[in-house]
Amino acid sequence: MPPRKKSPARPQTPQQRLAAVIKRCRDIMRIDPGLNGDLDRLPQMAWLLFLKAYDDLEEQRAILDADHKPVIAGPFRWQAWARNEKLSGDDLLNFVNGELLPYLRKLPRTEGGLTTADVISGIFQGMDNRMRSGYQLRELINELEKIHFESADDVHTMARLYESMLREVRDAAGDSGEFYTPRPVIRFMVQQVNPQLGEIVLDPAAGTGGFLIETLEHLGEDARKSVANRERVHSSVRGFEKKPLPYLLSTMNLLLHEVDSPRISLGNSLQTLISDKSAASKVDVILTNPPFGGAEDNEVAKAFPKEAQTAETAWLFLYLVMEKLKPGGRCGIVVPNSVLFDTAVGARIKKRLLETCDLHTIVRLPDGVFAPYTDIPSNLLFFEKGRPTEEIWFYQVKPPEGRKKYTKTRPMQFEEFADCQTWWGGVERTGRGDDPHAWLVPASTVVESGYNLDLRNPNAGDDLAHRPPGELLKELIATEHEILTLLEELQRVADGDQSR
């Protein structure tokens, strides 16, 4: 019997191919004695990828414009040193540590800080080469050469891999309160807030830049109409990021999407923006998923008005957002359930929210949307600055039939927002009516409750996941009392039997 022919291997998808490259890179870095864990390995790979990606973009620009002058020049361009196979071992380490990184840190910077040279120089102020073996570094560089950033597929796939790298860094660091925002949630929020050409869009907790990238894609049709439009769109997205690695990743993400001078600042927006009272610091749109469950130090909290002073980051960001919106400005923000039911400092901030903004919609997300980082139920708040809230629509998004929650391996899909988008009623939010997943609450009811927004769907029966904590606690205490009474009765019966 003739031997069976092996069926040809299926070609790898861009995701599979790049994931394989990244895996090999990490295997190489595990051998190097200078890198201890993902907190060292991932930043090392990130800045090398940055240089590789930027050089690929420079090559494309040179093809389109013969007079193009690269920002990183001469022997410091990736193609000049990284592709030189003879540069290895101690010679490679000496070049990277003694020449390349100092050169990048000293790129000429301008007063405004908005040129590409400013961005690159800023990134490398906080970057170091931690690898001790020049031979392992050469192997790593050779693997990274297999990624091609002139390919649109590689660009988009790499952007997603960058985000997965950040997630792993957060896992390794054990950072509480910082959760990767799933792409379907970002896309839904951007579409419902609907940024327009010419509007300034801010994310004060930018992470890898997911909201900013989705905004660019949302405005892509306008940007393609003219060079002037493209420049307006690219200059309209702004961000702040507190930590160096996600700052690098968000900057990389924007550069990969051809934003020559990303307007992302490295720093704590809670400190920088709250102290800027100028009209120029106000924006048209804010889209963000700020860290929650974390704590800021006293100096940050003291910059806020007394009634808003707290260590809880979620409250500080919500207050900041209200302050930074222009009259008529719009916001979509992710908040945990605690923001809805808190009646301490939260009640004061929610009072201000309802008095200064129209909190027109709260979308309640299913459990597990942020798995595996947290099972805390989360919500999306949508509001406009400039007029008080009169009534609030709630909409409960349900997981697919037969499922109770989402998981890491079975995450939420964008299509699962379709019913909510249909109900939304377009830009004017008109025609919202009867829907088993939606309910309307007068603002006066919220005020009378002490600004409790953790309201359950009256159409959904006894939904434990979203009932107010106080109500659940009362029922649990009552149940415990009933159980205790029954146990005492049983004890009396048992004692009576023993005495006979």
TrEMBL record:
Keywords: Methyltransferase, Restriction system, S-adenosyl-L-methionine, Transferase. It comes from the Bacteria. SUPFAM superfamilies: S-adenosyl-L-methionine-dependent methyltransferases. Residues 156-459 form the DNA methylase adenine-specific domain. One of its GO terms (biological process) is methylation. One of its GO terms (molecular function) is methyltransferase activity. Transmembrane segments: none annotated. Residues 19-143 form the N6 adenine-specific DNA methyltransferase N-terminal domain. InterPro entries: D12N6_MeTrfase_N (IPR022749), DNA_Adenine_Mtase (IPR051537), DNA_methylase_A-5 (IPR003356), DNA_methylase_N6_adenine_CS (IPR002052), SAM-dependent_MTases_sf (IPR029063), T1MK-like_N_sf (IPR038333). Belongs to the N(4)/N(6)-methyltransferase family. This is site-specific DNA-methyltransferase (adenine-specific). The lineage of its organism: Bacteria, Bacillati, Actinomycetota, Actinomycetes, Micromonosporales.
